[in-house]
């Protein structure tokens, strides 16, 4: 296989911009697609994404475009970093720009709300059938601002073709950005998506001032829910004890830079979801993923009490304190039991 020299990055949010910056600094030719005119103009003129990644100076070699065709033209690979709720529509438009199969990496950490499908499952439906062997997923504990600052970051790249995964593993890696290879597409995506739901719950715990003991218990039992659902969906349980599982879960449930944790904290302090989301520029994927995760749990007959309670808080008007008390007062269980 030929070396990776040119990449199209679809999605210029904080994470997409940080990945584009990282790859451009490594010396790859990178074209960044953004939906917003002001983002494209700023990246190309002031070399800064002032909307989603303010204060970070981008390489002059990194260019942005409003044209999907221009972004992927002659690209050796595509990095897809679009919010889950617009993924299907962007993919439909993107499919018209692809004249031949090209390696395609999803870096979106979410589940489609209406269908409860993982991102590569949506891609399987929307993109040409010939693309199926070329789909991969990138996930792991990674705040965009820290990657942009050159701080050490480790992630996981999963795909169906080990040779293809190895090729892009090498293309993405630098001394500050370590990439591990995997073959568990389901597990890597599920861990990256569901940790956002648990981060909302952990934020609620912190917003209520319930202490470190409660947060540690929430994270641990949240991991148990993720593993149960993952196994039911055919994932390797070992995946969830790696970077895209417990690694991302701990980061997002405890890091002050986590949007989902911040939303949970504000909910715990009594703000309404409408007020919180109304003042946010970036997407908190956990809000949409919570509903999709509950749909997956019911479809696969898996008990996920934390996921159920955070849905009740988000969408049914249940108080945060009542949700916590209902979790604590559930019937006694064996820790290694099914629920």
Defining traits:
globular, single chain, 50% helix, alpha/beta, Rossmann fold, 11% strand, N-(1-d-carboxylethyl)-l-norvaline Dehydrogenase, domain 2, 339 residues, 8 strands, 15 helices
Secondary-structure-based class equals: alpha/beta
Poorly predicted regions are none
Query: Helicity range of the residues?
Result: 40-55%
Beta-strand percentage? 5-15%
- What Rg do the Cα atoms give? 19 Å
Structural notes for this entry:
With 339 residues, this protein is α/β, with parallel strands linked by helices. The protein folds into two domains: 6-183, Rossmann fold, CATH 3.40.50.720; 194-328, N-(1-d-carboxylethyl)-l-norvaline Dehydrogenase, domain 2. It is built from 15 helices and eight strands. The protein has helices spanning 14-26, 37-45, 68-72, 84-95, 119-126, 144-148, 162-172, 185-207, 212-232, 243-254, 259-268, 273-278, 285-299, 305-315, 320-328; strands spanning 6-10, 29-33, 63-65, 77-80, 104-106, 135-139, 153-159, 177-182. An eight-stranded mixed beta sheet has the order 3-2-1-4-5-6-7-8, with helices on both faces. Helix 1 links the parallel strand 1 (6-10) and strand 2 (29-33). The protein is globular and about 60 Å long. The mean pLDDT is 95.
